[in-house]
Amino acid sequence: MPELHEKQVNNWCSIPVCPKDFNLFATLNSGQAFRWISKPTDNEWHGVINGKLWRLRQIDSSKPVEYYTLDKPTNTRSDLTDIPSDLFDYFRLGINLSDLIKEWCIRDEWFTSRFSDASSTDTARGLRLMRQDPVETLFAFITSANNNLTRITKLLYKLCSLYGDPLYLDDDGDGNVGNWTFPSLEVLAQPKMISELQNIGFGYRSKFIVQAADWLLKNGGKSRLYELRTIPHSEAQAFLTQIPGIGKKIHFYTRMMDSKPNKKFKDMMHHVTSTDLSE
């Protein structure tokens, strides 16, 4: 395992995960999330997790990911038990990616050709599957219909900057805005939002966003979406397909997740691994 940084230097704390198992650029630039703001000159990203602004960086691909904090470390250990729970959960740091890759390579030679230690095409190595806020994920999913990554990012940026709460880079709220919270269901469910969303470019998706927010408020709200993580897959799928703007599209993806790796899955992985995700 490569040598890690000191635990805390100038308010930056290292996350004790091997860089081969956590590449920040590959993860945040993979199309999973759309609202992390990149500061390329500092190798830094600003994003929102559980309503809080986080600053993350990775100096280069051989160094561990770091997070910025004004708090003093609670202990002197440099292990995952010392990582803030928001980051631990969001990036699923309890999952050992190297172990998974070894298992995949044993089961399928296709993975061996791309992710073995001898492979030169593992540009997606260190890309982690994130556990994101379910409300934001759902509305990003609706926004993604017949859309591309650049436009999805711009639309969600507009949405949050207009209807979310600003989060500042300093504690007193007088500095630069680092990002915004995602608008609440109550805000999105207002009938007037249909025309307002159309005005900022959401087009036909506008009515689905408002209808989905209204439906969710009447069917358990945000807490119900969190509960879907713990109930049987079929039950969660049945709930999601009732939401306006979701329907059969989510059914297709959940069916794919249920199935064993197949040609469609490999084609998607080929797209990721053949794309240069390095800086």
Question: Major β-sheet, in short?
Answer: 6 strands, antiparallel
**Annotation, overall tally of beta strands:** 8
Q: Can you write the helix and strand succession as a string?
A: EEHEEEEHHHHHEEHHHHHHH
Number of helices: 13
Derived from helix and strand composition plus strand pairing, the structural class reads alpha+beta
What proportion strand? Answer: 5-15%
Write down the Rg: 20 Å
Shape: globular
Low-confidence stretches: 1-6, 254-279
The end-to-end span amounts to 22 Å
Strand arrangement, largest sheet? 1-2-6-5-4-3
State the share of residues found in helices, binned by percent. Answer: 40-55%
Which whole number gives the mean pLDDT? 83
Topology of this protein?
Blueprint (H helix, E strand, L loop, with lengths): L7 E2 L2 E3 L9 H5 L8 E3 L4 E6 L2 E6 L8 E3 L16 H6 L6 H11 L1 H7 L18 H10 L5 H15 L2 E3 L8 E4 L4 H4 L4 H7 L5 H13 L3 H7 L5 H8 L7 H11 L4 H11 L6
Antiparallel strand pairs: 1-2, 2-6, 3-4, 4-5, 5-6, 7-8
Helix pairs in contact: 3-4, 8-9
InterPro entries: DNA_glycosylase, OGG_N, Oxidative_DNA_repair_enzyme
GO molecular function: 8-oxo-7,8-dihydroguanine DNA N-glycosylase activity; damaged DNA binding; lyase activity
GO cellular component, one term: nucleus
